[in-house]
Amino acid sequence: MAIEVEKVIEVIVTVGGLPAAIQPDDDIYDAGFSSIRALQLLTELEDEFNVTLPDDKFSLARTPRALSALIQERAS
User: Where is the Carrier domain (predicted)?
Assistant: First the structure.
């Protein structure tokens, strides 16, 4: 299953209230994402893509592209 970065961005924008103009390599925390929103994002991504994301790897994946790669890795 190929994980589209655009779909990850949609989830990030919805959960975090970030502008839709966020780019694949933008740091979501630099863009205003909070740690509370990160927990909500973790849950939403796990539900949306039917994967379990380890907390330690999730916290290191700070861009939509990195999150997409992590989801792809866990979905394989």
Answer: 1-75
Listed in sequence order, the residues at least 6 apart from 61 whose beta carbon sits closer than 8 Å to its beta carbon are 67, 69, 70
Task: Tell me the pLDDT tens digit for each residue of 34-57.
Answer: 889 999 999 999 999 999 999 999
Q: Which two tokens stand for residue 26?
A: 């933008």
Place of tokens 């994946």: 61
How many CB atoms sit inside 10 A of residue 45's CB? 24
Distance from C-alpha of 35 to C-alpha of 1, rounded to nearest angstrom? 28
Give pLDDT tens digits for 6-30.
Answer: 999 999 999 988 777 899 999 999 9
- E strands of 1-76, at which residues? none
Domains for the chain: give ranges and CATH numbers: 5-75 (1.10.1200.10)
Helix (H, G, I), strand (E, B) or coil at 75: helix
